[in-house]
């Protein structure tokens, strides 16, 4: 096709396990980040998602700014409704709900980022190693990845959590990371594989650069956007899994977190007496998850222009040409 | 050129323009192109990548898809203007009157259906419901291109590249249409296969009398096979005329430059010269003649106004060099 | 053929890993959990059952680990998982599981298939009518929907339809004052109880299918062979289904099977929220009661279910995509 080339975008995965993503160009780390910055401001979904995420980060970092009460203190009258003093009312145990929701942000974000970084780190290590080393190493790592991918994660987490009699934030991060890296490892390996034959890598090899250098300096920066997408995916699933585990009581009940709030809510007949106890933490989970998902989805659109919202034609298309054309030699109007 | 098709012309393209609507603005890929195709004629369209020739082809066949669209002009085939018709209205003309051969058969053939099934689909769409009749005709066209009909059961990935390409041509001939549009069908093949395919196409053309519009970037390939040659540059027709004449005495400096770039296997050894510079950005084309920035014979006039098509010796050429030499044909 | 063999081999390998995990995990935890249980239930279960428990958890036996492992494998192969510690007096785990299985098969099975079918269909149409209302609404709506925690949505639906509006039942899989039978009244009651949990599961899973199918379709619609189908004058629905959808769905099939593990995880929570006594609910009962034999059996069951689904998806892909059938 003689279409003018579309702007070269960094490659990104589809949001579900599937075929390998399109290979990327030789875009190095810093340039990729700057490009991403531009892409984020340009794409509405990405901007919304990033803003939301930033908001949550702020709340997690400085909860005392917007919630002065101690979330654990069971000193208030129980089951109060919404009021100026208690923005979301109080729980059946006499705690201020607003404080709980606000202070609960930190453990959730810790888990999200902890798993995000950890699982992505492991995934990059294994995915890129498998692609780069090839041969027997690749087969072995591949099998390990696939097996872990297939074994149902949530039931496994339940089993482990059960043996451990509940997991605090740190343990939760470790366990989810160790079991959940396989999904993104597969995508990273696929992309690393597609980069293997590329010229810029051959050039590095011919220059005499050693394997580790090539991996660290050439391959990984090219995969920047996929790595960021993996981070977001892992963070998202960490939030959903951890709140699920907390909900069934396998979290640390003494830590105030959105999932544990739901656990206590369900155990205290919240349906009948305090619906807000159920709604508030859940909405927070949805909001945070939406932030991650929006950014991730926007990345899909950035990487695959075909998915972007369609542009509309307005008025006579012929009049929309950007540059005016000079007067033609003969002034017959175009038909 | 008159605005009515010349006698014997089966296809008349008038003032056809098409653009791509991108985020950075509209890119005009085909700019006011007009030409006729006569019955049984072989018209070659050549030009470098990005000149708009494939877009032109798909525009003629009404196969453009978002973000591309036809913005002006008419395409008259069998007395009807095809521009603006819906897919359903085009069924009568598609494949029975005008068929298409694409560049890569691997991409143009559905990977999950057998060759025979895809042939059958085309026939069923035009009224042949009997499976045996469809099978007979399918076998017939395959034999025409030298493929054993047993391959009707094969899937595209099971055939070799050359066979796939020929199968695609066979499919295009299912209804012996009046016009076959080909978009670089030989580009994916090696040199030997290219030539043999061209010979086969010419042979079929002679047997069945269909016209061919053949798009390629390889001018030397079509020089032996085409009746007329059209050179495109930056979305416009640069030169169009009988092949022999365009080859022998290229009127447009661009065409001349292209000739210089191809070595002759028999002629004297000479230094090859390329054409300096690169094609204009079609999102904001230059004001005057689009080739002016790269033209060795550029004049002052060239950067100020856009040339129309001038006729000289049976060739139409978009270049001011020929302005005084003959009557300006104007914007046809 | 080689393809199928390889997949079966993978199946067996994963099963083995799951079994071994089951074997190793309790032994890796600080303080063998089984000790406490066995002590608790001494006298309540038969000596044979105790023996099985010991084999499973390596308690109070002087066998070396390897022999334990082999005995464990042998027990699993004969579906002898030992006694369930939730029920008194120690009904065999296999029985307990079999009671609960049909409920989950019904709920999750039907809902997942429905979600996949509906989701794929909507995705196809949405992509075909690019720029239409469906297409513009889909992405943001379903992106948000896909991050809603299954269990929370269930809670909210209970709040609205069960508690506030008193429209639908939300506790248990049928009205427990009725005796189970095949009468229309009972079946109707079962269906009524399945509406809320089923709907929850449907809503949370359908989003992914719609989106991925739509994205795959959009990419496929740009392919040359779709353009060629148009050029041949094929009717619109044939191009959409036979040429575009048939190719676009291929990656989805495998994705569907892979995601089953995730869906089952969500189903566990949904069964818990609605007290729907299927396999998932049973698993959580086991967790609460430290009924490890039951827990292990259920974990294996879920793993096997996912593996079977993957195998089925692979076979389906092989049937639909001739490229995978050839010897490669």
By CATH, the topology of the largest domain in chain C is MetI-like fold
β-strand amount of chain C: under 5%
Per DSSP E runs of 2 or more residues, the count of β-strands of chain A stands at 0
The CATH homologous superfamily of the largest domain in chain C is termed MetI-like
Question: In angstroms, what is the radius of gyration of chain A?
Answer: 25 Å
Oligomer: heterotrimer
End-to-end separation of chain A? 27 Å
Q: Which bin fits the share of residues in helices of chain C?
A: over 70%
Q: Give the CA-based shape of chain A.
A: elongated
Number of domains of chain C: 2
Number of strands of chain C: 0
Helical residue percent of chain A?
55-70%
* Main beta-sheet strand count, sense and barrel state of chain C: none
**Helical/strand content category of chain A:** mainly alpha
Give a short account of the largest sheet of chain A: none
Average pLDDT, all residues of chain A: 75
> Which runs of chain A of at least 5 residues are low in confidence (pLDDT < 50)?
1-27, 315-335
Task: Report the top-level CATH class of the largest domain in chain C.
Answer: Mainly Alpha
CATH architecture tag of the largest domain in chain C: Orthogonal Bundle
List the topology elements.
The complex is a heterotrimer of chains A (about 325), B (about 325) and C (about 325).
Chain A: H1 29-42, H2 44-61, H3 63-66, H4 97-103, H5 105-133, H6 135-150, H7 153-164, H8 169-180, H9 182-196, H10 199-207, H11 211-222, H12 224-247, H13 258-267, H14 270-273, H15 275-303
Chain B: E1 9-22, E2 25-38, E3 42-46, H1 53-60, E4 68-77, E5 80-81, H2 87-90, E6 98-101, H3 105-108, H4 115-125, H5 131-144, H6 161-172, E7 179-183, H7 191-208, E8 211-216, H8 219-223, E9 228-233, E10 236-242, H9 243-248, H10 253-261, H11 300-304, E11 309-312, E12 315-317, E13 328-330
Helix pairs in contact in B: 4-5, 5-6
Chain C: H1 2-28, H2 33-41, H3 47-57, H4 65-77, H5 93-128, H6 133-146, H7 150-164, H8 184-221, H9 224-231, H10 236-248, H11 250-274, H12 279-288, H13 292-320
């Amino acid at each position: 096709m003689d279409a003018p080339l579309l702007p070269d975008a960094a490659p990104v995965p589809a949001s579900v396990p599937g075929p390998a993503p399109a290979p990327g160009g030789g875009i190095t780390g810093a340039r990729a980040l700057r490009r991403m910055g531009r892409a984020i401001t340009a794409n509405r979904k990405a901007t919304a998602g990033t803003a939301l995420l930033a908001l949550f980060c702020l709340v997690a970092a400085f909860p005392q700014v917007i919630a002065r009460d101690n979330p654990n203190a069971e000193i208030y009258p129980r089951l109060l409704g919404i009021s100026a003093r208690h923005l979301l009312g109080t729980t059946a145990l006499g705690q201020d709900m607003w404080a709980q929701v606000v202070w609960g942000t930190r453990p959730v974000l810790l888990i999200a980022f902890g798993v995000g970084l950890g699982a992505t780190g492991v995934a990059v290590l294994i995915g890129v190693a498998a692609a780069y080393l090839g041969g027997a190493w690749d087969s072995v790592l591949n099998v390990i990845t696939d097996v872990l991918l297939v074994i149902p994660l949530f039931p496994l987490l339940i089993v482990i959590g059960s043996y451990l009699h509940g997991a605090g934030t740190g343990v939760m991060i470790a366990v989810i990371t160790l079991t959940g890296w396989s999904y993104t490892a597969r995508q990273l390996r696929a992309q690393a594989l597609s980069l293997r034959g590329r010229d810029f890598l051959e050039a590095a090899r011919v220059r005499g650069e050693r394997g580790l250098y090539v991996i660290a300096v050439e391959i990984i920066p090219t995969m920047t956007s996929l790595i960021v997408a993996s981070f977001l995916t892992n963070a998202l699933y960490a939030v959903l899994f951890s709140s699920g585990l907390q909900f069934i009581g396998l979290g640390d009940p003494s830590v105030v977190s959105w999932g544990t709030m739901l656990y206590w809510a369900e155990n205290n007949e919240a349906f009948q007496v305090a619906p807000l106890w159920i709604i508030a933490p859940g909405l927070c989970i949805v909001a945070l998850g939406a932030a991650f998902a929006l950014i991730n989805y926007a990345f899909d659109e950035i990487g695959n222009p075909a998915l972007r919202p369609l542009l509309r034609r307005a008025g006579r298309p012929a009049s929309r040409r950007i540059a005016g054309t000079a007067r033609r030699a003969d002034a017959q109007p175009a038909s | 050129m008159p605005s009515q098709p010349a006698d014997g012309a089966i296809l008349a393209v008038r003032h056809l323009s098409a653009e791509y609507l991108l985020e950075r603005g509209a890119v005009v890929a085909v700019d006011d192109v007009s030409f006729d195709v006569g019955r049984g004629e072989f018209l070659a369209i050549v030009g470098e990548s990005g000149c708009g020739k494939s877009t032109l082809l798909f525009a003629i066949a009404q196969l453009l898809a978002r973000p591309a669209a036809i913005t002006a002009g008419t395409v008259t085939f069998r007395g009807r203007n095809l521009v603006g018709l819906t897919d359903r209205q085009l069924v009568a003309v598609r494949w029975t009157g005008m068929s298409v051969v694409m560049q890569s058969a691997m991409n143009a053939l559905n990977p999950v259906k057998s060759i025979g099934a895809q042939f059958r689909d085309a026939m069923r769409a035009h009224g042949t419901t009997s499976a045996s009749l469809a099978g007979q005709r399918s076998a017939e066209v395959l034999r025409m291109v030298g493929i054993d009909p047993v391959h009707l059961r094969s899937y595209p990935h099971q055939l070799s590249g050359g066979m796939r390409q020929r199968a695609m041509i066979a499919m295009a001939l299912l209804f012996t249409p009046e016009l076959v549009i080909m978009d670089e069908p030989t580009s994916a093949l090696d040199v030997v296969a290219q030539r043999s395919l061209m010979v086969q196409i010419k042979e079929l053309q002679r047997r069945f009398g269909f016209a061919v519009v053949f798009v390629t970037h390889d001018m030397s390939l079509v020089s032996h096979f085409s009746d007329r040659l059209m050179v495109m540059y930056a979305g416009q027709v640069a030169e169009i005329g009988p092949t022999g004449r365009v080859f022998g005495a290229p009127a447009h400096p661009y065409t001349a430059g292209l000739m210089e770039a191809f070595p002759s296997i028999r002629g004297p050894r000479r230094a090859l010269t390329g054409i300096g510079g690169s094609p204009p950005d079609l999102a904001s084309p230059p004001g005057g003649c689009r080739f002016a920035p790269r033209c060795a014979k550029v004049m002052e006039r060239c950067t100020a106004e856009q040339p129309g098509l001038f006729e000289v010796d049976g060739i139409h050429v978009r270049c001011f060099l020929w302005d005084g030499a003959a009557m300006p044909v104007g914007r046809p | 053929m080689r393809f199928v063999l390889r997949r079966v081999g993978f199946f067996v390998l994963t099963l083995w890993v799951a079994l071994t995990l089951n074997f190793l995990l309790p032994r890796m935890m600080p303080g063998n959990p089984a000790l406490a249980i066995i002590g608790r239930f001494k006298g309540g279960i038969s000596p044979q059952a105790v023996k099985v428990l010991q084999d499973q958890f390596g308690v109070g036996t002087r066998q070396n680990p390897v022999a334990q492992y082999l005995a464990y494998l042998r027990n699993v192969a004969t579906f002898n998982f030992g006694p369930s510690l939730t029920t008194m007096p120690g009904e065999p785990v296999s029985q307990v599981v079999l009671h609960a299985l049909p409920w989950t098969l019904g709920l999750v099975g039907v809902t997942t298939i429905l979600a996949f079918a509906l989701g794929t269909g909507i995705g196809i149409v949405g992509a075909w009518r690019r720029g239409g209302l469906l297409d513009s609404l889909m992405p943001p709506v379903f992106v948000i929907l896909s991050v809603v925690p299954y269990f929370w949505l269930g809670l909210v639906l209970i709040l609205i339809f069960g508690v506030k509006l008193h429209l639908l039942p939300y506790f248990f899989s049928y009205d427990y004052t009725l005796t189970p039978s095949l009468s229309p009244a009972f079946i109707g009651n079962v269906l009524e109880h399945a509406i809320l949990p089923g709907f929850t599961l449907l809503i949370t899973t359908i989003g992914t299918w719609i989106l991925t199918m739509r994205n795959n379709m959009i990419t496929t619609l740009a392919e040359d062979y779709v353009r060629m189908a148009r050029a041949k004058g094929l009717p619109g629905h044939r191009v959409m289904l036979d040429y575009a959808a048939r190719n676009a769905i291929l990656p989805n099939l495998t994705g569907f099977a892979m995601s089953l593990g995730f869906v089952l995880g969500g189903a566990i929570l949904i069964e818990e929220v609605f007290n729907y006594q299927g396999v998932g609910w049973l698993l959580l009962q086991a967790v609460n009661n430290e009924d490890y034999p039951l827990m292990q059996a259920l974990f294996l069951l879920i793993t096997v279910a996912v593996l079977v689904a993957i195998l089925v998806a692979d076979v389906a892909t092989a049937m639909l995509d001739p490229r995978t059938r050839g010897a490669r």
